[in-house]
Design a protein that fits this description.
6 strands; alpha+beta; 3-stranded antiparallel beta sheet; 23% strand
Length: 160
């Protein structure tokens, strides 16, 4: 029984110490120099002394953006659909070739939030509009990342 009580006590103390340390980590710390020239620190601002709050050195981890490989994988999955759009557009304009660059915002949920045409050497607004509509439907999969903005180029050359 004594062994069980000790384990329970240690676990309780450990949980309490974690709670206290998290509270201390979020508390503001003040620094001032006393009359003897020594630096003093406290979590409470002294009332009669001019003290400066210290900036926290704890940095929050910033969420990463999606990797280029992750994004490329989704485009590779859909390249057949994009090429089919190109083949259909070439029925209207057999000389259609070139490329376009798109600015794409991808949400952490994987949905495309925004897409815009950055530049294009394709001489077909209907075709670039179709490309943007198709890319808007892509889902990059939910990920623990921040919103990612990319500049993505696509080039179309006629098959020989």
């Amino acid at each position: 029984m004594n062994g069980k009580m000790n384990r329970f006590t240690y676990r309780s103390l450990f949980c309490i110490s974690l709670t206290l340390s998290s509270n201390l980590a979020s508390a503001e710390t003040y620094q001032w120099v006393n009359q003897n020239g020594h630096a003093s620190f406290s979590d409470k601002k002294p009332s009669a002394i001019s003290a400066n709050p210290l900036k926290s050195t704890v940095k929050k981890k910033k969420k990463q953006e999606r990797s280029k490989a992750e994004i490329q994988q989704v485009f590779d999955k859909h390249k057949g659909q994009l090429f089919r759009l190109y083949l259909n557009a070439r029925k209207q304009d057999p000389d259609l070739e070139g490329g376009a660059e798109f600015i794409i915002d991808i949400e952490p949920s994987g949905e495309v939030a925004n897409i815009a045409l950055a530049s294009s050497s394709l001489d077909s607004k209907p075709f670039t509009d179709q490309l943007m509509a198709k890319i808007q439907q892509f889902n990059f999969g939910a990920s623990n990342t921040q919103r990612t903005t990319i500049l993505y180029p696509i080039h179309f050359l006629p098959a020989q």
